[in-house]
Amino acid sequence: MFTGIVEELGTVRAVERGAESARLTVAASTVLADAAGGDSIAVNGCCLTVAAQGDGTFTADVMLATLDRTSLGALEAGSPVNLERAATLSTRLGGHLVQGHVDGVGTVVSREPGENWDVVTVDLPDAAMGRYLVDQGSVAVDGVSLTVLRTTPTGFAVSLIPETLARTTLGHRRPGDSVNLEVDVLAKHVEKLLGHRATEAAR
To answer: How many other β-carbons are positioned within 10 Å of the β-carbon of residue 91?
Structure first.
């Protein structure tokens, strides 16, 4: 479990590609301060397991299901990535509950600079995902906890403050770029529970 508050920008050091998997080596500092093998680190919003550590790097295996569902397969040496360690019981919940389980890959469609912010509009990969988004609700974009500024017929818009622009990959995303999306897990649970209740009431 994560909070969507990115701790640092790491850099992909190497990508070893297999037929149905990949192995990422990422250079970092903050997230390695207390990391050990088996720990979870979110990379652009994807929960990955530390398989090995080197001098200022960690390595994680990425399976086919993750490659199919996320944008990690497009990473290459030199790519910047958002990094966050798994939350603990004493972690401040500065963002929202983020699982690191990406629901799909969206596409940045526009970027409107403001005085001290940028408004970024993202299209969803599947219109059905839109039912989990509400104005002023939460969404994770490349692992960054954001507030939905407004929903659109095909996606949503968010307003990025200077801190987010400076400390995450979202400061460099441009129209046409892909971003990992995770909707609010609480909305999915509520939907399923209400569905069960409706089914039982109809019996």
So the answer is: 13
In the chain, the N- to C-terminal Cα span, in Å, equals 37
**CA neighbours closer than 13 Å in the CB half-sphere of residue 135:** 4
Q: How many CA atoms lie within 13 A of 158 on its CB side?
A: 24
Strand partners for 157? 121, 150
How big is the chain, counted in residues? 203
Burial of 53 (0-12, 13-18, 19+ CB in 10 A): middle
Q: Compute mean pLDDT per 10 residues along the chain, 203 residues long, and list them.
A: 97 95 97 95 98 96 95 96 95 92 97 92 95 96 97 97 96 96 93 82 73
Contacts of 143 (CB under 8 A, 6+ apart): 2, 4, 6, 42, 43, 44, 45, 46, 82, 84, 98, 100, 180, 182
